[in-house]
Amino acid sequence: xxxxxxxxxxxxxxxxxxxxxxxxxxxxxxxxxxxxxxxxxxxxxxxxxxxxxxxxxxxxxxxxxxxxxxxxxxxxxxxxxxxxxxxxxxxxxxxxxxxxxxxxxxxxxxxxxxxxxxxxxxxxxxxxxxxxxxxxxxxxxxxxxxxxxxxxxxxxxxxxxxxxxxxxxxxxxxxxxxxxxxxxxxxxxxxxxxxxxxxxxxxxxxxxxxxxxxxxxxxxxxxxxxxxxxxxxxxxxxxxxxxxxxxxxxxxxxxxxxxxxxxxxxxxxxxxxxxxxxxxxxxxxxxxxxxxxxxxxxxxxxxxxxxxxxxxxxxxxxxxxxxxxxxxxxxxxxxxxxxxxxxxxxxxxxxxxxxxxxxxxxxxxxxxxxxxxxxxxxxxxxxxxxxxxxxxxxxxxxxxxxxxxxxxxxxxxxxxxxxxxxxxx
Length: 425
Ligand code: ADP
Description:
Elements: H1 2-39, H2 42-66, H3 70-91, H4 96-110, H5 116-139, H6 149-222, H7 230-261, E1 270-273, H8 274-292, E2 296-300, E3 305-308, H9 310-327, E4 333-340, E5 343-349, H10 382-392, E6 396-401, E7 407-414
Parallel strand pairs: 2-4
Antiparallel strand pairs: 1-3, 4-5, 5-7, 6-7
The structure holds adenosine-5'-diphosphate.
Protein name: histidine kinase
Transmembrane segments: 12-35, 41-59, 80-113, 119-142, 154-172
Organism: Hyalangium minutum
């Protein structure tokens, strides 16, 4: 993940450089052309030709960079810079110092984008161009008559201003971006710390009763005088099992979140009798609903069969149902499954505490909660995982609610147009 954001930053930097360089290059081209014509100077006409080649190459590099081909874009603009300098040296002697520096600047530009062998070739070419500039401009007399001294000074001053301006602008943008990344990193660390403290609290919550029940069982069995009743022991074991189930669910959620983060949430769709699946899940939740004092109802108008990943679909319903029982305890909860043309619609409705309007979208994001951790335990991951599974399956999930009036979660999923495989039912 870090690598991809670094990659994005490199791409952005190159695009930004090309975006700034192109107008500067066009500006110099126009300046050279205008004065070449006004002064009838062959030297300036040659200089304009060199800048024209560079400008065309820059435009092409920019296209490559926007297509994500950073290496090709950087090499093209780098070599174009060398060609411009090599050509320019033949015509304009007065820029000797600048012309010597440009190939070195080109190396700095190309460096982050290019692997060692092409980089070595580029550096060799830059060195060759510098030698060429030294000989042609430094040791030999000019091939063409040079423009008047006043013009030379102006061009030199403009070139310096453009270079310094470009460098400062790049540094400024980098500094701003650095500060933004720092703020984001600090925020991420704070979120992680808060998450770690909530997660450890949540993991510990089932461990305490689990440990107590196991101690009680041990005490009852090890007391020499009394034989514990079968019912009582089974009660303790049921309770212990429920706590273990909670722990497994928490760990599964954490694993799912890291899978989603790594882009590894895999779905394995198959043809599923969804009416039967929903019925089974609702039945499985009966004891939990009874403990929460909720009457659990299932409505299913017609049989629904579709192509979904059964385990993940079950996980979606599990999450919605356990939330409905948690946040709507003591009140009825209704599950409804309907076919809607090419889609299925699953709704889970409760009559509990409801969700404030401001939180209706937010709660589908990682670690987002609309209740205080003191009143209701939870990691704020269930709905995030639910949304990702549903979206990955090509569907949608939305929440509707009024505070204190309960909440309705609606999932719509494509029933899947995949043909029934040979031998499939
Ligand atoms: P958790 O329940 O562990 O906090 P979820 O991602 O399942 O995490 O839910 C996120 C938040 O959405 C919850 O903290 C709660 O504020 C809100 N929420 C979810 N389902 C309901 C519901 N049925 N009624 C009221 N609030 C709900």
